[in-house]
């Protein structure tokens, strides 16, 4: 939820990668072994991104790109 506020991506729009694998919504970071200073990638779901781009082509607005955050 906190990342949604920072990135403007709803949880259903987010894809989380750790150690090269996409993680499921039901996995907690500490349970998969994430520690301090580990790199975790938060990406926008490609399907959602495509829908936004199609909306943009039809004249709808798109959210601002996500800033880099440090936690």
TrEMBL record:
It comes from the Eukaryota. PROSITE patterns: UBIQUITIN_2 (PS50053). Residues 8-43 form the Ubiquitin-like domain. SUPFAM superfamilies: Ubiquitin-like (SSF54236). PANTHER family: OS02G0597700 PROTEIN (PTHR47376). This is Ubiquitin-like domain-containing protein.
């Amino acid at each position: 939820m906190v990342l949604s506020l920072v990135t403007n991506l709803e949880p259903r729009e987010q894809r989380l990668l750790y150690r090269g694998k996409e993680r499921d919504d039901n996995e907690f970071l500490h349970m998969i072994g994430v520690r301090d200073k580990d790199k975790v990638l938060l990406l926008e779901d490609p399907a959602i991104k495509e829908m936004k781009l199609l909306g943009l082509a039809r004249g709808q607005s798109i959210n601002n790109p996500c800033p880099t955050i440090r936690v």
